[in-house]
Amino acid sequence: MDELVLRVVGWVESELRERAEAPRQGDEGAPDAWVVFDGSVRDALADVAAGDEVILVSWFDRADRGVQKVHPRGDQARPPTGVFSTRSPDRPNPLGLHRVTVLAVDGLRVRVSNLEALDGTPIVDVKPVLGDVADR
Questions:
Q1: CB count, 10 Å around CB of 7?
Q2: In which domain, by residue range, is 28 found?
Q3: How many domains does the structure of the chain reveal?
Q4: How far apart are CA 82 and CA 71, in angstroms?
Q5: How many C-beta atoms lie closer than 10 Å to residue 114's C-beta?
Q6: Domain membership flag for residue 64
Q7: Region entry Disordered: which residue ranges (predicted)?
Q8: Could you read off the pLDDT of 45-76 as tens digits, one per residue?
């Protein structure tokens, strides 16, 4: 099997429109943003609440899928490194991982902090951040 089909479950609404505007990581000054979910996943979203820490899995739809090596953090002084050892959005399968805190839930709209994804970025999944084993 060499092809998968992902289902988009939501989209990012953010003030970030261009890659040059986005911080490299969410904790480096990313703005709060909305994630707007498709009505078909309403039940899956039912228990997400303000205060939750979650991992958003996005599809970097504007990434270059042909890139296999990058200079980490765009620093030309650093040697080229295979993308599987970096968080570069340019990669063969451009999945993004974003650890965010849920600030508010308004129906199918979820306000989150520290999201460096661009406006319109598709969201393909949401997973809770796991705490200690005893709390799971």
A1: 10
A2: 10-129
A3: 1
A4: 9
A5: 18
A6: yes
A7: 68-92
A8: 999 999 999 999 999 999 999 999 999 888 89
The C-alpha atoms of residue 61 and residue 14 are separated, in whole angstroms, by: 15
CA dist 136 and 115 (Å) reads 25
The answer to the question of residue 115 being in a domain is: yes
Separation of alpha carbons 40 and 35, rounded Å: 15
Residue 136 lies in a domain: no
Q: Give the tokens for residue 41.
A: 């996943």
What DSSP state is assigned to residue 108?
T
Element (H, E) at 59: strand 53-59
Using DSSP's 3-state secondary structure scheme, residue 109 falls into strand
Task: Encode pLDDT of 27-41 as tens digits.
Answer: 777 899 999 999 999
Instruction: Give the pair of three-digit tokens for residue 68.
Output: 């296999």
- Residue 136: pLDDT band (50, 70, 90) is low
Residue 123: Cβ within 10 Å count? 24
pLDDT tens-digit map of 106-119: 999 999 999 999 99
